[in-house]
Every structure is written in C-alpha cells, then in structure tokens.
Amino acid sequence: MENQEETTVPSRTARLVLVTPDGTVVGCLAPIPVEIPWWQEVESVVRAARDRHGIDVTILRLLEAARDRAPGGEVTYLAEIAQPVPADAWAGKLEAHPLRQAYAEPGGPDADLDWAARVLAGHGLAPTAKPIQVRTWNLSSVWRIPLGAQSAWLKVVPPVLAHEGRVINALSGHHVPTLYGHDEYGRVLIAEIPGDDLYEATLLQLLAMVTLLVEIQASWIERVEELRMMGLPDWCGQSLCFEIAEVVRRTSEELSEDERVTLQRFVQGLPALFAEIHACGLPDTLVHGDCHPGNFRGTEGALTLLDWGDSGIGHPLLDQSAFLDGMAQEYVETIKDHWNREWLARVSGSNPARAAELLAPIAMARRAVIYRRFLDNIEPSERIYHRDDPAGWLRDTAALLKKIRLNAR
C-alpha cells in the first residue's frame, strides 16, 4: 500500500554489513549498484553481492538509508554469510530491539526455510534448487523455493499480520492461494499460482475481481465471530471510530490547522455517519484490507486473490477505496455500478452505492490507522518505510472531506 509515488525513481546502491550465523560482525562491503530501487526487494541485492564479490548473502534487515524515504539512494543492510570473508571495518553497533522480527536476526531465515522443508516433505516434495530470497522488510520475508518446474512461496509476517494463514485456510475452496501449510508464528507456505500479477488488468478482469471479492465477503456474513476467533482486527463502527480518533489525535502536530479542524469535525460526526451507513443494509463481514488489482494473480480465465495479512472485520465496501485508487477514470463508474449490482443481488433492499459514498472518507482514514499500527509494531530503523503515511492519509482524508462538503453545496 503506497500513499504517493515519485515520478522519477532514483537508482539504489546497497551497502552490506556482514555477520556470521552466531551474530559476529565481520565488517562491511563497499556499496554496490542494484537493478531494482525498492528497498524491500532484495533478490537483486543478493545477486549483485554474488556477481561483485562472489559471496552468498541473506539480507536480514535495513540498518539505515541515505534518503529520507524510499526508493533509491544508498541503503545499508545487515546481511548474513556462512563464513567470514575479507571486508572493511564497520564502526557501527548492533543492538537488540524487542520489536525485531525473528527473520531479521542471524539464523532466522534458516529456521523459516527448515520449517518450509519439513512442510514440503509432508507433501512428498523437496526443494530442487537453493531457495531464492525475494523480499524482506518489517511487513514480510518472502522466499521462492524451486520444486522442479514449479515453486513454493514462503512468506513470514510479523504478529500483527499473522492471521493470514488462518484466513487463507478458512477460505479454502474460494479463489485464494493453495496452502501447503501455515503456523502460528506468521509462516505461510503456498503453491505457485499460474499467470501474472494483474496491475494492468483489463476492464473485464477488474469486474471479475469485484465479483470474486463480493462472493467471498457474502459467504462470511453471519460468521463474524469466527473471524474474531482467528484474530482479525476489528474495523466495525464503534471500534473504527475510536481508532480514527486516536490516529487523528496522535498525528495532529503533523497536520495544518485547517486539516485538524476538518478532521476533528469528521471524528465528532463518525457515530452518526456509521449509523447512516448501517441503515444502508449491508452487514459487517470479512474485509480484505488491501484489495487492489496488483493483489490479484491469474490468467484471463482464472483469478486468485492474494495477501490476506491486512484483512479485518468491518463493512465490506471499505475495500472499494483501495481498489479504485489509480484506476483509469473511464473505468470507475462502470466498476462502481458493477459493485452495486453484485451486492444488491446478494442483499436485497440494501443500498450499496450510498454506503460506498458515505464510507469513502472513513476508508481513507482507516489507512492512516493501518500505518499507525505498523509503526507501533516495528523497530525504529524500519519505520522509515511508513513514517509519513499516517499524516499523508489523514491529509488526503481532509482534502476529500472538503471536496465532499463543496459538492454538497
């Protein structure tokens, strides 16, 4: 989930501080250019270290960055190596932190891969080549494990997202990833999904995505307590009112006076707004939480909805805002109309279009809540990824509220 993107993406260089599996600091390597600028993408960093220095590394975590926001620039990572190699002296210091993820410590990725190997063995499978590290940051560690012509995908997430495996398991039979296994420590191992990531989906594919999501959400109406037992966050009316009020309070110093006034008025009116939304007739259910086209993978004939770690409980149309972000303008009304018809077919007498309209600023403010939750649960060196996001989404919420007010005149 990104709030803004720069028009020109600067290049990235990676500086690696090396440690052995017992945590002993070996030293650092000179910065090396890498192909992809996004800090959490580390497959190109591993490849560059092998090409430039002839060593195999596992990237553990971000230590520091020269720029104040991603992507690009010089980025320093902690990287694990099996044995010491020649390296320059490093004057920094590694310190423990209670919010650090296990996969960000020496030995952590190996433990995750050992778990994945045991799960695969239970299915009569074994890796046919060395696993490939794809991504690591405060929200996930991702590995691709070759299985002949196919691959398994290992994803490990922090505790705040650790319900992902439980949700995918509960959604078995729907268009979600096929699980090899999951555990209570945030590990999920899934089968390869044919096709492509659908950031550039056609209109027909976009409409099919909406249908797929609504089918899943409709199947969980009246089953909210099961979702609570899985540990999903609560974004129902009263709970989300409180969380939005809290993020506005905690972020107020980063906002202008006009934005603060607009958002305080919004917070005060939230209970009445939720009552009006409730009167539109759609009950709370499963919310994907980050349902945009890029989180679908597939072909013309088959779609799979990925990335359930951001899921929660709330109004189903909370998902519409993220889906429409960046959408080609000529598609928007067609998609909204389709979304409306899909819910009307399942909940007669409801008013999905009105609910979506009322929910738009709430859905935007919920994203500030999400990023505040991330920041509260990650160590300081990794907060740079999300540091500006709560304020950014609240500014966007204030701007939307002013636009709504002007249009109502």
Automatic annotation (TrEMBL):
Name this protein carries in UniProt: Phosphotransferase enzyme family protein
Single GO term (MF): transferase activity
Gene3D superfamilies documented for this protein: 3.90.1200.10
Keywords: Transferase
SUPFAM superfamilies (alphabetical): Protein kinase-like (PK-like)
Keyword Transferase carried by entry: yes
Pfam families cross-referenced by the UniProt entry: APH
InterPro entries given in the database record: Aminoglycoside_PTrfase (IPR002575), Kinase-like_dom_sf (IPR011009)
Taxonomic superkingdom: Bacteria
Keyword Transferase: yes
Species this chain originates from: Rhizobium hainanense
All residue ranges annotated as the Aminoglycoside phosphotransferase domain in the record: 143-357
